[in-house]
């Protein structure tokens, strides 16, 4: 009876000892001795990781054989003892056959040559941490408690009104018109503020320096736009003619004086066309003069 119980997973020496003891004198073995033999690590080496995969490996590889191992980190380890691998399996891990073959044996039945069986260690189950499992359980419980309240709230809520496409189109149009109106009002406020700043700002004196040698064409093309802009903004404009006196020391002949008078007349006409009113002339025509023009609004 004991021989049949201990047939699988018991080494040859222990099997022979137990078989002999049971056949000759079963009374000679106490229950304590039998229990120690049953749970001896060497006798029970295959019971620690007993599963169908391990039984399949034992049919391919002898108990004392070696295998080619692919560990849990996917690293290849050649010629590893099968017994050591099964002993070192952790909880949640199992050994499976990756490449089925037969272990080469010598004439006496002992393993010989390179092993032909490749096995790998895999995780049979994913264990969750206690805190994470408790948190997930609490979330599930919270969802279960919230479902009746949500259903009651949905039942007590009034039914939603269905809107047709025409009403939605009218509402979108109304919102677009309202946004356009707000943008126009903001634009008008900004423009009014700019105009107010122009009118209420302090009047400044703008100065334009001209040489006695400038011609009428250059006067209109280079200075007319600036003078018109300043006068329209309410600034006083001063036109300085002949500021560089050292350049004009030899320009006092009758012909040069006539040219100077023509330039002064052109400056007056340009400022009057731009809306300016002459306030007076200072200086000497032989050296330099200053023409002052104020805006017509003043």
From TrEMBL:
<dbReference type="InterPro" id="IPR036788">
    <property type="entry name" value="T_IF-3_C_sf"/>
</dbReference>
<protein>
    <recommendedName>
        <fullName>Altered inheritance of mitochondria protein 23, mitochondrial</fullName>
    </recommendedName>
</protein>
<dbReference type="GO" id="GO:0005739">
    <property type="term" value="C:mitochondrion"/>
</dbReference>
<keyword id="KW-0648">Protein biosynthesis</keyword>
<comment type="similarity">
    <text>Belongs to the AIM23 family.</text>
</comment>
<dbReference type="Pfam" id="PF14877">
    <property type="entry name" value="mIF3"/>
</dbReference>
<feature type="region of interest" description="Disordered">
    <location>
        <begin position="127"/>
        <end position="202"/>
    </location>
</feature>
<keyword id="KW-0809">Transit peptide</keyword>
<feature type="compositionally biased region" description="Basic and acidic residues">
    <location>
        <begin position="162"/>
        <end position="198"/>
    </location>
</feature>
<keyword id="KW-0496">Mitochondrion</keyword>
<dbReference type="GO" id="GO:0003743">
    <property type="term" value="F:translation initiation factor activity"/>
</dbReference>
<dbReference type="InterPro" id="IPR029427">
    <property type="entry name" value="AIM23"/>
</dbReference>
<keyword id="KW-0396">Initiation factor</keyword>
């Amino acid at each position: 009876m004991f021989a049949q119980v201990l047939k699988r997973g018991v080494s040859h020496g222990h099997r022979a000892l137990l078989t002999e003891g049971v056949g000759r004198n079963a009374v000679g073995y106490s229950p304590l001795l039998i229990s120690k033999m049953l749970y001896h690590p060497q006798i029970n080496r295959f019971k620690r990781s007993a599963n169908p995969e391990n039984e399949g490996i034992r049919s391919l590889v002898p108990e004392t054989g070696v295998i080619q191992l692919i560990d849990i980190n996917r690293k290849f380890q050649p010629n590893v003892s099968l017994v050591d691998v099964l002993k070192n399996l952790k909880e949640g891990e199992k050994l499976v056959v990756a490449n089925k073959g037969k272990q080469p044996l010598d004439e006496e039945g002992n393993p010989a040559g390179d092993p032909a069986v490749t096995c790998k260690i895999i995780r049979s189950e994913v264990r969750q941490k206690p805190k994470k499992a408790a948190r997930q359980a609490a979330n599930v419980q919270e969802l279960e408690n919230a479902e009746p309240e949500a259903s009651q709230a949905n039942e007590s809520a009034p039914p939603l009104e269905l809107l047709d496409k025409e009403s939605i189109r009218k509402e979108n149009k109304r919102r677009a018109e309202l946004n356009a109106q707000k943008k126009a009002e903001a634009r008008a406020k900004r423009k009014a503020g700019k105009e107010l700043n122009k009118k209420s700002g302090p009047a400044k004196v703008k100065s334009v320096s001209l040489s006695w040698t400038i011609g009428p064409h250059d006067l209109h093309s280079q200075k007319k736009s600036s003078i018109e802009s300043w006068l329209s903004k309410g600034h006083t404009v001063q036109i300085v003619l002949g500021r560089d006196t050292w350049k004009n020391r030899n320009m006092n002949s009758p012909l040069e004086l006539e040219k100077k008078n023509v330039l002064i007349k052109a400056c007056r006409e340009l400022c009057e066309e731009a809306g300016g009113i002459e306030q007076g002339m200072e200086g000497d025509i032989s050296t330099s003069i200053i023409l002052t023009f104020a805006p017509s609004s003043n």
